Amino acid sequence: MAETQIRTLSSAQYRNALGSNGNFILKHGVGHMPNNSEVDVPLIYADYYYVEALMRYRNARVTP
């Protein structure tokens, strides 16, 4: 399931083109849906957790 999520977030639908959208990695982030706050915007903490997930996935595949 984690691999599917990473692959989905890495697709053109969710990942910004290099150098676009203020240099954020991901697009369509949501900060707080019930308050309609930060909806469909790039979020720095979304990028952070995305990179964290990529690193953990890579390390899990490399380490026996």
List the helices and strands and how they pair.
Blueprint lengths: L1 H8 L19 E4 L4 E5 L2 H19 L2
Antiparallel strand pairs: 1-2
Strand content: 5-15%
| Biggest sheet overview | 2 strands, antiparallel
Q: Label the structural class.
A: alpha+beta
- Basic shape: globular
What is the overall pLDDT average? 93
Distance between the termini: 19 Å
The portion of residues assigned to helices is 40-55%
User: How many DSSP helices?
Assistant: 2
Strand order of the largest sheet: 1-2
SSE string: HEEH
Radius of gyration: 13 Å
Number of domains: 1
Segments where pLDDT lies below 50 for 5+ residues? none
Number of separate strands? 2
Primary descriptors:
2 strands, alpha+beta, single chain, two-stranded antiparallel sheet, 64 residues, 2 helices
In a few lines, what is going on in this structure?
The longest helix is centred in the C-terminal third of the chain and has 19 residues, at 44-62.
Overview of this structure, please?
- The protein is α+β, with helices and mostly antiparallel strands and 64 residues long.
- The protein has one domain (2-62).
- It is 42% helix and 14% strand.
- It contains 2 helices and 2 strands, in the order H-E-E-H.
- A hairpin with a 4-residue loop joins strand 1 (29-32) and strand 2.
- The protein is globular and about 45 Å long.
